[in-house]
Task: inverse folding
């Protein structure tokens, strides 16, 4: 059975009426396998997102799905009565046995969401308006989850944004050099060690734990095709307790440069100040009401830290032989690391100005 046949067999196990007319690979995520399925019923077509959860990475999928169920129900309740509610929060389709996911004959774990029509995710930011909209919606997402009832959400990947731990894992990968690649990454390894001091900057800043998305890269938010407005936060696998600034930092990492994450022309990878300003304004427009003074003071450094952390993660995976992120060509993880480190440098060069803008917007 090939992948398409497998996903077609799986999607029939979910509570969807009608005939399956097509199913094909979809999107450009690095972790899960995503398909788009089209069903026809009474002459009407309806699309669905079908995903196989990467269980090598998400080791407790039932806990992960429980998080997503609690979070999407809470968001749906918050949005009740609001216009366009069905497109502003993910809707899970249960399996025929009533469970949130289905386990196929090969042991794969699958889930299905209703497809949000008339909107799309972008791999690279195209305008400051898009950056503003994405940040506004991610901020709103955090805000709506401030009062999620207890218990605490599960940590789907423990220490996910612990930069000190990410650094320790990186050091081990350098020592092991399991794929004999350290020789090709000498400059990047040196760069990482030279900036090791920043790894604890957010952990030592006395910031409150919140419910955060933890993977706010630009292609994890859908923008409305007709209006360009930020519509829906997607990719909820890492929603768990975290720091608000992990989310803002990842927005800065992915939406201040128009270059792709694996761009090889590093001159294209710069932190564009107007994009930062748009992100900041968008995020503060929704999250400004609940963020503490300390959180606001660390908004600029968050971007630098998360870009550095992501650079280390890509570099670690390169050294380990590409075990974690999907790669489509040799050296792709090293290229991805280089873009992240280039962004760190670009932020360093503009940090003072970034902090100046923060003070201006926050203090009046
Ligand atoms: P990954 O974890 O692999 O990044 P995502 O959940 O982000 O997977 O999904 C991959 C892509 O599929 C997204 O970037 C987006 O384009 C699309 N997508 C995901 N969920 C939906 C949805 N409910 N409606 C429409 N498109 C979606
Ligand atoms: C992965 O699933 P995706 O592609 O949105 C990763 C993020 C990284 C990102 C880098 C669970 O996100 O943490 O920032 O790649 N997700 C996980 O592009 O590790
Ligand atoms: Mg994604």
Result:
């Amino acid at each position: 059975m090939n992948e398409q046949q497998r996903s077609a067999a799986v999607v029939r196990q979910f509570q969807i009426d009608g005939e399956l007319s097509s199913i094909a690979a979809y999107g450009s995520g690095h972790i899960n396998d995503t398909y788009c399925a089209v069903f026809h019923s009474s002459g009407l077509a309806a699309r669905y997102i079908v995903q196989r959860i990467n269980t090598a990475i998400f080791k407790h999928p039932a806990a992960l799905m429980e998080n997503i169920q609690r979070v999407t129900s809470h968001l749906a309740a918050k949005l009740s009565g609001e216009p366009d509610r069905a497109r502003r929060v993910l809707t899970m389709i249960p399996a025929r046995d009533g469970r949130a996911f289905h386990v196929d004959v090969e042991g794969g774990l699958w889930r299905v969401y209703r497809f949000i029509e008339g909107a799309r995710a972008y791999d690279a930011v195209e305008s400051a308006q898009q950056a503003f909209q994405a940040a506004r919606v991610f901020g709103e997402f955090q805000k709506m989850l401030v009062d999620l009832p207890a218990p605490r959400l599960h940590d789907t990947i423990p220490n996910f944004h612990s930069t000190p731990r990410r650094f320790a894992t990186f050091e081990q990968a350098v020592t092991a050099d399991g794929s004999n690649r350290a020789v090709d990454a000498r400059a990047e390894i040196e760069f990482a060690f030279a900036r090791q001091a920043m790894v604890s900057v957010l952990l030592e800043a006395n910031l409150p734990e919140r419910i955060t998305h933890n993977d706010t890269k630009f292609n994890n938010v859908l923008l409305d095709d007709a209006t360009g407005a930020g519509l829906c936060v997607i990719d909820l696998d890492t929603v768990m307790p975290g720091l608000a600034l992990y989310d803002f930092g990842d927005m800065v990492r992915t939406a201040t440069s128009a270059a792709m994450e694996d761009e090889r022309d590093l001159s294209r990878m710069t932190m564009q100040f107007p994009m930062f300003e748009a992100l900041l304004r968008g995020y503060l427009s929704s999250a400004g009401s609940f963020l503490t003074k300390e959180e606001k003071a660390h908004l600029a450094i968050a971007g630098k830290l998360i870009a550095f952390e992501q650079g280390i993660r890509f570099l670690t995976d390169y050294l380990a032989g590409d075990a974690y992120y999907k790669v489509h060509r040799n050296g792709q993880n090293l290229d991805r690391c280089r873009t992240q480190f280039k962004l760190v440098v670009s932020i360093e060069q503009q940090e003072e100005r970034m902090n100046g803008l923060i003070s201006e917007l926050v203090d009046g």
